[in-house]
Amino acid sequence: QGLIAEEAFGRAERALLHLRQATDRYGILPETIQAFATSAVRNARNGTEFVEAMRATTGIRIQVIDGDE
Questions:
Q1: What is the per-residue pLDDT for 67?
Q2: Which end of the chain is more exposed for a tag (fewer CB within 10 A), N or C?
């Protein structure tokens, strides 16, 4: 349907929060973490909302890349 489902939002959020907990233990700043999204997020009508929600919740910025990258 061209949307990222609520369940997928939740799974991604849990995964990124787990990553943040692990990196926090080592003093790694969230702005130094590199996270990437590809076609599923790029093509979803709510892809921008997804990226913004993950940043707001986890502090991790997700870079949406094109197929060539």
A1: 81
A2: N
